[in-house]
Amino acid sequence: MEHFKEDNTRTPVPLGGPLSKEESFGKMLRCAQRIVTLSHTLPDGDAIGSSFAAFSYIQDVLGKSCTCIFPNRIAPTLDFMHDGEKYFTWDINEGRCRKEIERADLVLCLDFNVFSRLGADLSSAVLERDCPRVLVDHHVGPDTAPFDLVFSDTSVSSTCELLYWILLRTPDIAGDPHRLPARCRWNLMAGMTTDTNNFSNSTTPSTFRMASDLLECGVDRDGILVCVNQSYRLQRLRLMGHILEDLLHVVHLPCGWDASYFILSAQTLSKFGILKGETEGFVNLPLTVGDIRLSVSAREDRDSGNFRISTRSKSGVSARDLCREHFNGGGHELAAGGTLYMGEENAKKEGGGIFLSSPDEIGPYIEKAILGQFSSEGTEKDESKSC
Ligand code: 5GP
Ligand code: MN
């Protein structure tokens, strides 16, 4: 039976490298008095979880001041992830963010690989400051130049997992997860759970090891799952039905497998009363179909008029390459994203990129991109469909 075939190629331990890196990190934290954490635009569970886990470690273990900064507000669906942490968002309170950045003597960057993921203004505000910067991230191809210390590992499930292994090696924690504050453990588990879609992707033995350490400490995983998967509003479920019934397009590729895409206009989102963040996870749904190996979603952003692209794929199909080449983005091999700009002006505002002139062009553009990217691939149909 194919199902019992084992994969021995996975990396068993996520953090190679000398201990001195964690020691340097510890030293930098000890020397700093005001630490700012930064994470990416449209912060997801991993961005938020790693930021607040770092906050809790810095404040509760080291007794230092910490402020978390995000480019934009936390989506209501992820509101459950904060509880008394000090944080500001650039879109609501740029002035306060600037002040915190100006006063910081260490900036800890979490869950992004290039500064452009913060937006132009916030990036400049940080890069203009002459203070040490540390990166903790699991995305491919980090721009390491702006950093004094880099923890970058693409083999880990999430930034939360990477941060867990780093914190474990700091002198205060000394390998004992019981020494981490409870809310730090909870945030690490919650962020990893969302980024792996509850252990369905990017997991390695070390991910389970981390989870089991945290469970042993008493983290309420069931409670996290209720918050993540069972606390949505009815509007979201109704929109999901509409997408599956009316909006989903299937593209048959000459190489034998199918791709799908759907487009959510601002009008549809407001008709269903959808809040920011509530479309999270929809892009995974088409992959439940055996023949569909790539799923693309486009969601209109009411403020900018641009379309946010989310893509998910199955093994052997690179969502990342598609996003890099056609959607002004990038990401992980099987989970990537980007933006299609509406109009040249919008593209220029973000430093240039591919743009379309009207929303009517989105569907044909996506279809052409998928066909262009994957049509020439070999027919692996029989082999890949064996299960
Ligand atoms: P999502 O579809 O959940 O928005 O994004 C999936 C993954 O794609 C994220 O974890 C992130 O790594 C990556 N990603 C999303 N948007 C962008 C983007 O605009 N640029 C790059 N480089 N990566 C992105
Ligand atoms: Mn992540």
Poorly predicted residue ranges:
378-387
User: How many DSSP H or I helices?
Assistant: 14
Could you give a short account of the major beta sheet? 7 strands, mixed
Provide the list of bound ligands, each named once: guanosine-5'-monophosphate, manganese (II) ion
**Share of residues in strands:** 15-25%
As a whole number of angstroms, the C-alpha radius of gyration is 21 Å
> What would you call the structural class?
alpha/beta
Any idea what the shape is? Answer: globular
What percent of residues adopt helix (DSSP H or I)?
Answer: 25-40%
Give the number of DSSP strands.
13
Mean of all residue-level pLDDT scores = 91
Order of SSEs: HEHEEHEHEEHHHHHEEHEEHEEHEHH
| Oligomeric state | single chain
Q: How would you characterize the overall build of this protein?
A:
This protein has about 375 residues and is α/β, with parallel strands linked by helices. The chain is built from 14 helices and 13 strands. It has helices at about 20-30, 45-60, 95-105, 120-130, 160-170, 180-195, 205-215, 220-230, 235-245, 265-270, 320-325, 345-350, 360-375, 380-385, and strands spanning about 35-40, 65-70, 85-90, 105-110, 135, 150, 250, 260-265, 290-300, 305-315, 330, 335-340, 355. Strands 7, 8, 9, 10, 11, 12 and 13 form a 7-stranded mixed sheet that branches. The protein has a 6-stranded parallel sheet with strand order 3-2-1-4-5-6, with helices on both faces. Helix 2 runs parallel beside helix 5. It is globular. About 40% of the residues are buried. The chain binds guanosine-5'-monophosphate and manganese (II) ion. Guanosine-5'-monophosphate (5GP) binds near residues 310, 329, 336 and 339.
